[in-house]
Amino acid sequence: MASSFFSEFGLMWYLGELRKDEFRKFKELLKETPVQLGLQQMPWADVKKGTREDLANLLAKHYGEEQAWDMTFFIFQKINRMDLCEKAKKEITGYTKIYRAHIKEKFTKMWFRDSVTRIYDHFDKKLTPKEYEYLECLFAPRETGRRTVVLRGLQGVGKTTILTKLMLSWAEGTVYQKFSYIFYFSCREVKQMTETSLAALICRGWSNSVSPVAEITSDPERLLFIIDGFEELGYDLNEPDTDLCSDCMEQRPIRVVLSSLLRKKMLPESSLLVAAVPKYPQSIEDRLMCPEVKIFTGLGETEKKLYFCCLFHQDRTRGIKAFSLLRKNEHLFSMCKIPTLCWAVGTCLKREMEKGQDPAVVCRRITSLYSSFVLNLFTPKGASRLDRQSQGRLMGLCSLAAEGMWTDTFVFSREDLRRNGLVDSDIPALLDTKALHRHWDTEDSYSFIHLCIQEFCAALFYFVKSHTDHPNPAVESMETLVSTFLSKTKIHWVFLGCFLFGLLSEKEQQKLEAFFGSHLRRQEVQQTLLQHLQSISENEHLQRQVDFVAFCHCLFEMENETFAGWAVNLSHGMHLCIHDKLDLAPVAYCLKHCYALKKLSVSTQNVLVQEGADPSMSTNHLTYWYHICSVLTTNENLRELRVTHSNFQESTFITLSSQLRHPWCHLQKLSINAVSFPGDGWLLFEVLTHSPDLKYLNLSGTSLSRDDVMRLCQALNNPACNIEDLLLANCGLSPDDCEGFRDVLQENTKLKVLNLSCNYLDTGMSLLCEALRHPACYLYALVLTCCYINEHCWGCLPEVLLLNKTLLHLDISTNILTYENLNLLCEALTDPGCSLKSLCLINCFITPEGCRDLAFVLIRNPNLRNLQISHNDIGDDGVRLLSKGLVHSTCHLQILGLGTCNLTSACCKDLASVLINCSTLRKLTLSGNALGHEGVLVLCQALRHPWCGLQWLGLRKAEFDEETQKLLIEEEQRNFSLEIIDE
């Protein structure tokens, strides 16, 4: 029986439909059936122990597909499974056959219509062995049938190409035969729809009705849906479950249909393959059901080399030279993983060599390569500059590119081209030069061969025209372009800002003037850029929006050290979130010019631990990292460094540590948060004894071993250590570690602040209390939030408050504080010998009754200035009791926190009395309470009282209705000394 599209995978699925007893009978019948059919028997030992997958492979191997299926059908009849025979025959002769023929025709046309796929002659529409293996791994056989795979890859890296090959190979019966149907949805195409049904999407283009859907969906576990270019939709999949639908026939908005499919509300047994760029919202994966994320990396080094050999097949020496140059430029080499860009880079280098130019000049920066590539497209061979017609086409192309970047348009109609000055007669020339290619989605649409080319042309637009001259008002000014790029608000803008800066370099301007003459707007662009960067530096809000790594890439492309030095020193604080090894060189280039920087924050993620196979590349990365760390010694103004969310290997950690303990490093504050470092942690703690200026150390979020804690405590006890503030929140500390801190508190008279929050201290608290009672302990503030303080230790704390005369701030929030223990604490607080000024008891399970004791403290303790009891269910009764202490003449409280305490408008009269009668109260937090309009009205009346001295009120305006919000705004405008903060 001919069934070329039924491989062993399809056979395995049918064998999987057999019950255990039927499968055992199937094996037994395999002894006699081959003889009856005149075939050789398979080894019984292999058959007997074989799984369903093994048996499918054995049948295909010994008899070939056709005879394997004939034998299978013969046995199915003998075990009374005619239903499986009928099902298979339907798939071979019914809708499946029609659909496969449609897919083969459709995707073959797409392949040959898409000019990009024809750029590289050695590429074929058949899957390579490597691609075949990669695809098989995506949906390797498992126990569960339904799967959701997210295929991540850069724009243009070849996701659509491999999916096109997949569809063709499935139609031809060579891959994914476990799926009866595979449906491919291009998001660029489907997002144009309004309302539809999944049935209509399934039958679109190959059936005049939706009648096949019932048969198709009868076995949903054998369906695969491919969603290609998911980022094009702009969806977040956040629709409520009640808005989703489960009926394939139901007409709904396209967004709802796709969300229902992706979130498994519709056809939950089916499999999904979602292709997207890496920067699409990661929150989307949280909405999918157990997604498996796979990375599509594009061309590897061997494939890049192979392509260069094909491109330079007539002169292998030049090809080897070009590839060597490419290999030395990490940015360009990385770009070449994208097939189209590999072609563009190779073509550009080849053209430069043919002109007798040094290709190394083109490989300096990505801007230099793209400018040469684009200008070469429009320059006839042998000519030194563009003719008038070519200039006009290039300027029209730049205008089109700018419009596309601002309107998020990447596929253009003829009308779009005409609006930007490109007439119909220009199109053949643009297609021939491969500046544009005909897009496969529709017959009469065009796009740039890659988004990077569009970005370059859009940047070039600002050098040949002003945005005010553009026919589309959506095209914004250059200043807006820079701000948009640096804030990363458009995720598809990858190089646009870099190209704008890069085109200002001296070498690029010389190149452009040679092609365009002297009609460039260089001086105007540069002056506008200078003024805009200056205005950003003077606006704190704008400065906070700047992605400084993107800014470093821009300055790196510009190749102007004087300008880079001026630009980076506009800011006194910088946060660098390094996501890729390619960020290291630009960041190192910029930091070496820093002299005004005072605060630096660096995050390297996993960049510094994933070493490449090439040792020279690893050496380069280590060199860049050294130059980044050198800012600690070359910038004498740098006072604060924060390293966060980073993983280090030994060499990179040694580099950082050596710069930190260098005599020229004058840091005063050092934070190492959520950082993983190798076993040489002692290098970090050695910094403490070699940095006399260092007063503040924050290791919160960084896991510390027992040995780490011992080394840290040894360093803290060294006379050369000057640390005053030590923050160790969430460091994985244990009760045993408190022994080291006890010694530190008793011996180190310099330490003033200790934060041990979010560590399981439990019985270790006894050791801390012992140290706090010691006369040599000079601690000023102790923070023990969420430290699992046990019952015994609550009894130790009151004694600490009585004996320790330096301790002024105590935070024991988020610990279980019983009424009895609160009572003991309050007794100590009312003692005349207690010096505490600030107490935080947030989320400590305080009851209204507990407020009676706290009120007594307010009356008897004139030292207490700050009391925080937010997130305790004290209610209106608690406020009533507390207010009796607050209005007392001996109460000197200045700050009170009552956020989220289950308060209502009923307590506002008591609070109003406090505002009027507590003359020292300056800050009050009430956010998270249902005070209502009436309650706020009472508070506002009190705020207007001449005796009220409140300066700061924490109250979220958005929690109230419009009328109440207006009331609060008016009160703030009336009272210039009052701030109402959304806290």
Relevant terms:
five-stranded parallel sheet, globular, 7 domains, alpha/beta, Death Domain, Fas, 47 helices, Rossmann fold, 983 residues, 10% strand
Give the helix proportion (percent range).
40-55%
Structural class by sheet pairing and helices: alpha/beta
Mean pLDDT: 87
CATH top level of the largest domain is Alpha Beta
Tell me the number of strands.
25
What's the structural domain tally? 7
Q: What is the CA-based Rg, rounded?
A: 35 Å
Count of alpha/pi helices? 47
* Strand line-up across the major sheet: 11-12-13-14-15-16-17-18-19-20-21-22-23-24-25
Strand content: 5-15%
Question: What can be said about the biggest beta sheet?
Answer: 15 strands, parallel
Regions with little confidence, pLDDT below 50 for 5+ residues = 1-9
What do these coordinates show?
The chain is of the alpha/beta class and 983 residues long. The chain has seven domains: 79 residues, Death Domain, Fas (Orthogonal Bundle); 201 residues, Rossmann fold, CATH 3.40.50; 64 residues; 158 residues, no CATH class; 123 residues, Leucine-rich repeat, LRR (right-handed beta-alpha superhelix) (Alpha-Beta Horseshoe), CATH 3.80.10.10; 117 residues, Ribonuclease Inhibitor (Leucine-rich repeat, LRR (right-handed beta-alpha superhelix), Alpha-Beta Horseshoe); 152 residues, Ribonuclease Inhibitor (Leucine-rich repeat, LRR (right-handed beta-alpha superhelix), Alpha-Beta Horseshoe). It contains 47 helices and 25 strands. Strands 11-12-13-14-15-16-17-18-19-20-21-22-23-24-25 form a 15-stranded parallel sheet, with helices on one face. A five-stranded parallel sheet has the order 2-4-6-1-7. Strand 16, helix 38 and strand 17 form a beta-alpha-beta unit. The chain is globular, with a radius of gyration of 35 Å.
